[in-house]
Specification:
The structure is a homodimer.
Chain A lengths: L11 H4 L1 H12 L15 E3 L15 E9 L10 H17 L3 E12 L5 H17 L4 E8 L4 E11 L17 E5 L5 H4 L1 H4 L4 H8 L4 E6 L4 H8 L4 E5 L12 H6 L6 E5 L3 H14 L5 E9 L23
Parallel strand pairs in A: 3-4
Antiparallel strand pairs in A: 1-2, 2-5, 3-5, 6-9, 6-10, 7-9, 8-10
């Protein structure tokens, strides 16, 4: 069978990303365990072996994530090859950060056209290696394969949880009433080059995983307006106060909500207003140069956004794949 | 920088696979640890955490490997999509087998043109899921990305060692005088369809890892004539007796040595002739339907192949990437 079709109705583009993901779950059935041990979160969480009898302290859980960079999609001729190597590692580090973990090892699969320039590839590897050293991630394995007409670099990153009890922060811990917060500032990632020079929030993710108030965490890759629904519990809607969303200079609200590739952390936490103030004060002491901003709250689905003065997210969109 | 060049001298094709791998090691430097903790073997071997005080039995080591299947390279329109999914998992399982390990979890990264047919993708996933269940490997994570014009599926497989002491069989244990053996039969993999329907030698690899005589192991993917040099120790040459190399029906010696994609195990073991007979007898009891054939021995580099009646491998070639 030819995998490609010129009849749009037969293709994955006709289905769209969300429906395609639902189909894939159905096709995989019992071969794919449910999150957090399986698909659907920033990383898969593989439980540590049970501790030996008499040893109370449980071992860290293993984290696994995979993300590619693809020529023509995630970078083009304007992005220096060193930055492509860095972006590849940092995208994956951001997923480890989003579970509150630390990275342990990476493997790289490269699919390369034989016409790839040697000096391009050298700069790509040197950029990747410099970051691998800076973040303390050994590159332990890889594969090189021929791919006529294409250039796809796929990195799989292993990590481990760092919080007591092997706690990993998934996307599914939030409840109605929890606060929504975001690290740093949003928007304009592509135009500014931040999409390949951002700093993965590893220290911040580990700090959040040790705070009992924090109940869910993810990194922002497709834009806040789309990604916030991944943290939203069933029966709830996110109420975001638009004027509070922290934006990079020169970025309007629409861009801050929809641009994507921010790689900031989106946090759900559960606290009284007084306890929330304490959490934010502790954050400022730990990370004086990176804001953590409360931008909203999870409300019952039937709460009217207008009456509360909140943003109508249905007017905003994040990045849609396969369009 | 444009990653592609039309001047052949500037490209990776001009360098060839072996020289390219040597360059990559140089570019990565200290970011890539040496084998077996790093690149260069069938899997990377990540040491288990040190056992708690008073616990003598060491935990299994973690194994990691990654291999893709790429449209136009590893499969074409003639290969059913179910078989593509199976091939992807089995290629990686074969790498786990080649360390004497067992698989524990897989993650899949798909780079897909939006024009990919939905029914092609469904059959691919169903083939992958059927094999994942059959081999007991949960698919714990994945990524979907847009890749206009291409179809690349990259699977990363985690595993663990099964032999006492966390022993993994690497490619580097052989010495001059060790025997060379191979499982099953070789050649004709592409023409017969075995390249996507082969059985990864997991049980056999685990059995071999428990035999102290076995000192090195790998799986055959690029053809015996090329791959045997990955098991050959420095200062040695492999003496292979051509008439003994086990071949599939209708396959000549040239094809058995050079076709590639056999996914059989190549074994180095150290034994007196009497002990070798014992090992082979034990194998026949364990695996009565799969031959283990002694096909040669590692000899000093200056040993003349002609005087010993052995094969001149310089006249044979395996699969070369980026040509």
């Amino acid at each position: 069978m030819n995998p490609f079709s010129d009849r749009p109705a037969d293709t994955i583009a006709a289905l769209g990303e969300q429906k395609l993901l639902a189909r894939i779950r159905r096709w995989l059935g019992s071969a794919a365990p449910a999150s957090p041990a399986g698909m659907g979160d920033d990383c898969a969480v593989l439980a540590a072996p049970r501790p030996a009898r008499g040893h109370a302290r449980s071992a860290p859980a293993t984290l696994v994530t995979v993300d590619p960079v693809i020529y023509g999609e995630h970078f083009d001729n304007a992005v220096p090859p060193r930055a492509v190597g860095r972006k590849l590692l940092r995208r994956n580090l951001s997923d480890i950060a989003a579970m509150g973990g630390r990275p342990t090892a990476a493997v790289l699969a490269l699919a390369l056209d034989p016409r790839i320039r040697l000096d391009w590839l050298e700069a790509f590897y040197r950029g990747l290696a410099a970051d691998a050293r800076a973040f303390g991630v050994p590159l332990v394995g890889g594969d090189l394969a021929t791919h006529r007409g294409g250039l796809v670099a796929t990195l799989t990153l292993l990590g481990e949880t760092t919080a007591p009890g092997g706690r990993a922060l998934t996307r599914s811990g939030a409840r109605i009433g929890d606060w929504i917060a975001v690290t740093g500032r949003l928007g304009g990632s592509l135009a500014s080059g931040r999409h390949h020079s951002f700093t993965p929030r590893l220290d911040e993710g580990r700090w959040l995983a040790r705070r009992p108030e924090v109940v869910a965490l993810m990194d922002l890759s497709d834009g806040l307006a789309k990604d916030v629904f991944s943290l939203t519990p069933p029966g709830a809607r996110p109420l975001l106060f638009g004027e509070i969303v922290p934006r990079h200079r020169g970025v309007d609200l629409r861009a801050a909500l929809g641009d994507g590739e921010d790689y900031e952390l989106l946090v759900a936490f559960r606290a009284t207003p007084a306890a929330a103030q304490k959490l934010l004060a502790a954050w400022r002491r730990a990370f004086p140069r990176l804001p953590l901003t409360v931008i909203g709250q999870f409300a019952p689905k039937d709460a009217s956004p207008v009456s509360l003065g909140a943003l109508d997210l249905s007017a905003h969109h994040g990045f849609e794949h396969f369009q």
